[in-house]
Amino acid sequence: MERAENRTYRRKIAALQQTAVVTRMMEEKMKDKARHRFTATDVQLSCRGCFTPVAHGNDIRVIENSHHVIVNPDFKMYFRTGGQVPLERHFEDWEPGRKIICAKCRKDWGMEIKFKRVVVLPCINVKSFSIKTPQDTRSPKKWKDVPFPVEEFDFLKYVDSVGLGLDLD
Ligand SMILES: [Zn+2]
User: Fold this and answer.
1) CA 46 – ligand 1 centroid, Å
2) Taking a C-beta distance cutoff of 8 angstroms, is the pair 97, 112 a contact?
3) What's the 94 CA to ligand 1 centre distance in angstroms?
4) Dist. CA 103 → ligand 1 center (Å)
5) What CATH number has the domain spanning 40-161?
6) Interval 8-31: pLDDT, tens
7) Interval 105-149: pLDDT, tens
């Protein structure tokens, strides 16, 4: 009799665990679908202070799943740099550079990051930009809520694309 009870109990636990796994998978799928609603090239970023369009979704790359940098060199005409951002702790691959602000309205946009001590890239805060898709304009608070996929930063590809690749001759 005790054995039968144990079996029922085990079955219940297994069902609960399975439900949890399936729920998590469905949530991930929905999030993924939301992230792929628009292609990155169809999305435009404008300064949330002065509404100047400054970049497209495909100009953005993500480093270590958290830092969103702009790899399009033309972006530099839209911002100015401010004071050095204090270094609060050490990171293996990057360190903060100067603050970056909108060239037109001086809105705080984020900061430069020095990646692997050799490449300096503007790292932007999503809260400083509005995002125009083919359907609407949004103001996401977090990068994970943007409705387009962001490619991962590829250091070697970037170095090559800006003509800093190794020329060993
Ligand atoms: Zn602005």
Assistant:
1) 8
2) yes
3) 27
4) 7
5) 2.170.150.30
6) 999 999 999 999 999 999 999 998
7) 999 999 999 988 889 999 999 999 999 999 999 999 999 999 999
